[in-house]
Amino acid sequence: MVKQGILSRYRDLLPVTANTPLFSLGEGDTPLTRSPQLENKIGCGSLYYKLEGCNPTGSFKDRGMVVAIAKALEEDNRAVICASTGNTSASAAAYAASSALDAIIVIPEGKIALGKLAQAIVHGARIIAIDGNFDLALKIVRSLSQKHQVTLVNSLNPNRIEGQKTASFEVVDEMGTAPDYLFIPVGNAGNITAYWKGFVEYYQLGKIKQKPKMMGFQAEGAAPIVRGHVVDNPETVATAIRIGNPASWQRAIAARDESGGVIDMVSDEDILEAYSLLASKEGIFCEPASAASVAGLLKLTRRGMDLSAKSVVCVLTGSGLKDVDTATRKTPSFTVLPANLADIEKAIGWD
Ligand code: F0G
Questions:
Q1: pLDDT digits 0-9 by tens, 175-225
Q2: Residue of the nearest CA to atom 10 in ligand 1?
Q3: CB–CB of 134/85 below 8 Å?
Q4: In Å, what is the CA distance from 346 to each residue of 49, 132, 171, 334, 339?
Q5: Ligand 1 pocket, 84 CB below 6 A?
Q6: Rounded CA separation 230/215 (Å)
């Protein structure tokens, strides 16, 4: 069966009109998997991962991008623009290419994981790398989109949020109920906004009886919401969430407060610990920013949070293959040997 995509599957709950092209590159319907080991280790009732790295361009951005691009086509706009820490630009480039639109992307130079840059290059986007961070890039593309005939496809575009909310629909459709807690990384804060919108809508439709608590996690060096002020020079190993002035700041706070959740921060060390644990114990290769959700879960449970009778979903936002530098940085990661049986057996310990 041909994969449906979110525009068709959730058309009644999306801004779809008779003129919206219902196309798909295969986004959505991502796996919700049960934790093989960590669930027991932390004594959690049930722990699930929403594997958003399984989207066509390897991140959750595709859910919002397909809606944003479909609406641009509907309105007969032929070019899209975005600022990005990498994943939005990869997604915009792919979806624009598939619809014969021009994609212009503005990125912070030297701060994009190579896999994401490769995606923008191979999909034929016009790439502008600036001497400045994501926040400045976003300011620039906002101005450009007001001045020129081009659709802004950052999450300031409401169609992006609309598409991304389908991830909460899927979580509920799969579990038959909402989890007690949803752990999620926070960067520009569009995704936490979108998940919350999705849960609220399902609640209003009577599909769930209770909404989850939204547990957002920023990186310590890029934690404006936690600190309560703009961070001028955000820094973190999790380049995807290296953001000092999130566009959806207020909406993230609303999601936190209305749900009774928290927005907290995790150190780079915490993030890398969770990243390694996910890979080495759970069999999941996600990118560092994604691991912030699990780093947050570990932080809170270590501080005594009791989840023994609770269901938890951690959103793993993007694929580890996007950022192989972080994975291969660890030394020594392998042994170099001559190609003979005896030496190899010796190295393995089978001699
Ligand atoms: N995880 C990944 C892998 C991301 O790429 C992002 C954001 C986030 C989490 C945070 O989501 O911004 O909605 O709070 N990436 C954006 C980009 C900023 O340009 O790709 P958010």
A1: 999 999 999 999 999 999 999 999 999 999 999 999 999 999 999 999 999
A2: 187
A3: yes
A4: 39, 50, 48, 14, 12
A5: yes
A6: 20
User: How much is the CA Rg of the chain, to the nearest whole Å?
Assistant: 20
Residues 188 and 247 sit within 8 Å (Cβ to Cβ): yes
Q: Whole-angstrom Cα distance, residue 219 to residue 266?
A: 5
Name which of 158, 176, 152 is nearest 14 in CA terms.
158
Distance CA 230, CA 265 (A): 15
Task: Say yes or no: CB of residue 187 within 6 Å of ligand 1.
Answer: yes
Q: What is the DSSP string of 137-198?
A: HHHHHHHHHHHSS-EE-STTSHHHHHHHTHHHHHHHHHHSS--SEEEEE-SSSHHHHHHHHH
Whether the CB of 52 sits within 6 Å of ligand 1: no
Q: Is residue 133 in contact with ligand 1, taking CB distance under 6 Å?
A: no
Element (H, E) at 135: helix 134-147
In the three-class reduction of DSSP (H, G, I as helix; E, B as strand; rest coil), residue 293 is classed as helix
d(CA 37, CA 308): 15
Q: Is 330's pLDDT higher than 90?
A: no
Q: Which residue has the tokens 């503005």?
A: 106
Query: 240 in ligand 1 pocket by Cβ < 6 Å?
Result: yes
Look at the block and give the residue holding tokens 């449970």.
301
Residue 216 Cβ < 6 Å to ligand 1: no
Identity of the amino acid at 349: G
Residue closest via CA to ligand 1's atom 11 equals 187
pTM of the model: 0.97
Question: What is the number of the ligand 1 atom nearest to the C-alpha of 287?
Answer: 3
Which CA distances in Å does 250 have to 65, 216, 246, 247, 282? Answer: 22, 13, 9, 8, 34
